[in-house]
Amino acid sequence: MSTERSEPEGPRIAFSREAFEAVLGELDANLRLIEKTFGVRLTARNGEVVVRGEPAPADACARFLDEISDLSRGGFRIGSRDVALACRLVREAPGVPLRQHFLRGRLRGPGRRQVLPRTARQREYIEAIRSHHVVFAIGPAGTGKTYLAVAMAIEALSRQEVRRIVLCRPAVEAGERLGFLPGDLVQKVDPYLRPLYDALFDIWEGDRARRMIEQGTVEVAPLAFMRGRTLNHSFIILDEAQNTTPEQMKMFLTRIGEGSRAIVTGDITQVDLPPGRVSGLIHAREVVAGTEGIAFIEFDRRDVVRHELVQRIVQAYESHERARREGEANGLPGAAAREDGPGPGEDAP
């Protein structure tokens, strides 16, 4: 990084070897990211980073680097991705101390790796789960709704806060009827539950997860299997809740027993119910919002933590839907027709 010779030297921050490498990043990518985030110039050598720039941004950057150094000295194994994440957090929630996010937000369990919230909203989600009996997480794909809920369930089980984990989904038919799919009932519904298995096996060791399922400590089942049951001392996750009916949602919420907590996740822009059917997730947001013990966390495309292309895809669909609604409001007949099929003279895809 080039600097002007006449510019006075600013704050100097020392790092452990591991933290210094993380701050640099691959080909100094993190160093450039920090410069861009704070509007400063950085010089790094021999385990130290020197900050140059206007006093206010230089001081803010120095405090940021000090926090990273403190995390490393305190035993947190800081990595290159953690530094990039810290820059993102500073942009989203500049007042939140990094220690609070990385240490309090860290999920611990017997799994092979730790799970950290990657956005300020994800940390808010984790805090809500820890302080409420029921949490609704609503937002687009890729925002970590299900993944973090499964991680929280594993942490609660490892700390013996609950005795079992119950993961369920509504089995909404999309093009194929269950009766025509091959295999017995378990094999028929298994494709609907696969995303829950994926999250479970990714966070936990595969063999341990299989044993827990075999022993009944972890149950993965269609929502219909919850009817008539009372789930005590359980961590219950209802995924894809936008595809429940209001009756199914009420049935699920009234299954919660003593010592249990429930997480409901879904994307209200991806409802697969038949036309005319009301989503139980949308209905519940109108009915139980504001009820003591229940929290609602709303994610948006800024919280997408999958491939960056996913964030752009979500944005494109949001823009398309907004334009369609505006067109309908202005009485443009083509706005709705485009949703149904090709226009005159066009070929179907």
Order of helices and strands: EHHEEHHHHEHEHHEEHEHEHH
User: Whole-number radius of gyration?
Assistant: 24 Å
> What class would the helix/strand composition place it in?
alpha/beta
> Strand order within the widest sheet?
6-5-7-8-4-9
Overall pLDDT, averaged? Answer: 82
Outline type: globular
Tell me the fraction of residues in β-strands, as a range: 5-15%
Low-confidence sequence ranges: 1-5, 173-178, 334-349
Helix content: 40-55%
Q: Separation of termini?
A: 51 Å
| Number of alpha- plus pi-helical segments | 13
What's the count of strands? 9
Largest sheet: 6 strands, parallel
Plain-language structure description:
With 349 residues, the chain is of the alpha/beta class. 45% of the residues lie in helices and 13% in strands. It has 13 helices and nine strands. The strands form two sheets. The protein has a six-stranded parallel beta sheet. Helix 10 links the parallel strand 7 and strand 8. Helix 2 runs parallel beside helix 4, helix 7 crosses helix 8 and helix 12 crosses helix 13. The longest helix has 22 residues. The chain is globular.
Brief write-up:
The chain has 349 residues and is α/β, with parallel strands linked by helices. The protein has helices at 17-24, 29-38, 55-73, 80-92, 98-104, 120-131, 145-158, 185-203, 206-215, 246-253, 280-287, 308-329, 333-340; strands spanning 12-14, 41-45, 48-52, 134-138, 164-169, 218-222, 234-238, 261-266, 294-298.
